[in-house]
Amino acid sequence: MARTRATGGGSGARKTSTKKRSFWALLRKWLVRLVLLAIVLPPLLTTIYSVVPPVSTLMIGRYAQLLWVDRQWVPLERISPNLVKSVITSEDSGFCVNDGVEWDALQDQVEALSEGERPRGASTITMQTAKNLFLWGDRSYVRKALELPLALMLDAILTKRRVLEIYLNIAEWGEGIFGAEAAAQAWFGKPAKDLTRVEAARLATALPNPLARNPASPSSGHRRLASTNLARVKGAGPIFGCVLDN
């Protein structure tokens, strides 16, 4: 009888061990699948986005919560050159020549971080587009690290015109307001193609804080930022050639 009990106990232990091995094997299999999906999905989606208008993760989040979203996709040629110039000058003056990442600016931010300072900036238009398409909105070093390879991928697969076209159509310009056309209609009552230089400058300088800055009725600080943007656009030189004909 004693031997029978010992044998039964050993059998139960083997069954438990087998179940544990099966569980970990299944877990590893699914983790491998998730990793492969995370690697394959962004390039696949980016290829699709080269011809199909995408939505941002923030827009998807609002849709999931049944919140209002206003986004009216328009091609780049139906967005005022004034806005194109103001946004590039404000957000990424090296847009036409970088590979999606401003390495010098990024190095400066890493050095600032190593010295205990709070890093600022260093996000290119391509990096912001990557964040809007694939990542979350809260700031974190993990998210920033993920932006780098995604930005390089976007720059490799898409043309500069398409990257900017996507960015200007998914950027947030107020609560539930996404894209240049929706922003122009909401704040100025006109299509994006008719934005003036001043209106464009106010929209461009609202981008870093779109929920707090009102382009139609800017604060004194916002007005100063817009005036600085106008002066910078005027003296920018030939930095828009990859997206504008003149």
Automatic annotation (TrEMBL):
<keyword id="KW-0961">Cell wall biogenesis/degradation</keyword>
<feature type="transmembrane region" description="Helical">
    <location>
        <begin position="30"/>
        <end position="52"/>
    </location>
</feature>
<feature type="domain" description="Glycosyl transferase family 51">
    <location>
        <begin position="68"/>
        <end position="223"/>
    </location>
</feature>
<dbReference type="InterPro" id="IPR023346">
    <property type="entry name" value="Lysozyme-like_dom_sf"/>
</dbReference>
<keyword id="KW-0997">Cell inner membrane</keyword>
<comment type="similarity">
    <text>Belongs to the glycosyltransferase 51 family.</text>
</comment>
<keyword id="KW-0812">Transmembrane</keyword>
<protein>
    <recommendedName>
        <fullName>Biosynthetic peptidoglycan transglycosylase</fullName>
        <ecNumber>2.4.99.28</ecNumber>
    </recommendedName>
</protein>
<keyword id="KW-0573">Peptidoglycan synthesis</keyword>
<keyword id="KW-0328">Glycosyltransferase</keyword>
<dbReference type="Pfam" id="PF00912">
    <property type="entry name" value="Transgly"/>
</dbReference>
<keyword id="KW-1133">Transmembrane helix</keyword>
<keyword id="KW-0808">Transferase</keyword>
<keyword id="KW-0472">Membrane</keyword>
<dbReference type="InterPro" id="IPR001264">
    <property type="entry name" value="Glyco_trans_51"/>
</dbReference>
<dbReference type="InterPro" id="IPR011812">
    <property type="entry name" value="Pep_trsgly"/>
</dbReference>
<dbReference type="InterPro" id="IPR036950">
    <property type="entry name" value="PBP_transglycosylase"/>
</dbReference>
<keyword id="KW-1003">Cell membrane</keyword>
<comment type="function">
    <text>Peptidoglycan polymerase that catalyzes glycan chain elongation from lipid-linked precursors.</text>
</comment>
<comment type="pathway">
    <text>Cell wall biogenesis; peptidoglycan biosynthesis.</text>
</comment>
<keyword id="KW-0133">Cell shape</keyword>
<dbReference type="GO" id="GO:0016757">
    <property type="term" value="F:glycosyltransferase activity"/>
</dbReference>
